[in-house]
Amino acid sequence: MCFYQDTLNEQLNVHSAEYRYSCDIRSGVSTHSCEVCNKALSKKSILITHQRVHTGERPYACAVCNMTFSQKVHLIRHLRVHSGERPYACALCNKAFSQKGNLRSHQFIHNGERPYICDVCNKVFREKSSLTRHQRVHNGERPYTCAVCNKVFSRKDILISHQRVHSGERPYICDVCNKGFCEKSSLTKHQRVHNGERPYACAVCNMAFIQKSSLITHQFIHSGDRPHICEVCNKGFFEKSDLTKHRRLHSGEHPFACDVCNKGFSHRGNLTTHQRIHSGELPYSCAVCNKVFSRRDNLITHQRVHSGERPYACAVCNKGFIQKHSLILHQRIHNG
Question: Among candidates 49, 81, 42, which has minimal Cα distance to 64?
C-alpha cells in the first residue's frame, strides 16, 4: 500500500511541478534547461527524469519479468499486468481497467461520442491522441527514432516493440511452451497453435487460418494473382517477402548463420528450425493427442489426421490428399 501511495505522491509532485513550470514561464522565473534539446523544466528532479529520453536509462526494473522503465509510475502501471489489479471501473457496466486513460476511452463506447475529426478525411476518433496518430498517415510524420539503428516510427509503442530486436527482450511468455515474444499480438497468434483456433476463414473454400495475413496470401490461389515478379527469372509470388527470399537463390546469399555450427541459411525461419536440432526444442504440440513437433508446418499436416481435412485435390479424379507432395506423387498415375 505504501508503494502505491509513494507513487501517487510522486505523480502529484510531477503534476504540481508542471503547473509551477507553466507559471514560471509566464512570470520569467529561471528554470532547469536540458543541455541536449534545450527544453526548460521547473525542477531538477523533473529534468533528470526527462534526460532519460536522451540517455535511454531505465532504472526501474520489474521484479517479475525484469522489464525496465524510465519512470517509477510506468513500473507501477506495468506491475498490474502481473497482479491483475484493475483499479479503474466503469460506473455503467463495471468493466475494470488497469489505467485511468483506458477507462476514459472505454466510456466513449456508452455515449457514442467521437469528438475529434480528421480535417483531411473526416474520420472521427474518441481521443485526441488517436487523431494525432492517425494524422501521421496523411503527413508522413515519424517522430520516434530508434537510438541504435535510427529507424523511425509513427507510434511510440511500435518503437518500443522494435527496440526489443536489439535488446533481445521477449516479455510475453506462452504459458504452454514458455516461448517468448516481443509483442503481445505475436503471443496471441502463437497460442492458436496450441488451442487450435483459426479465426480467419476463406469465403470461397472455407479453409481457416491462424493469421489474417495467411488468409490474404491463400486468397491469391483463387484469384491467380502473383503481383511480385522476380526480375531474373520472371517467377511470380503472392507476397513481397517471398520474392525477397527467392532472390537469394540467384544471389547465393545466406545471411542467417547458426551460432553453434556456423551453417548458413537463406531464410531466418530455416535457421530457427535448424537450431532445434541442437536444442531439442519441440514447441508445436497437437491439442488432440499431445504429439510434439519441431516445425509448425509438420503440426498443421499432422492435425489433418484428426480433422480429416484433405486440402490437396487431384484435378483428374478429385481424390484428396493431406500433403501436397502426396498429390504430386499421385498425379504420376495419370500422366505416366
Answer: 81
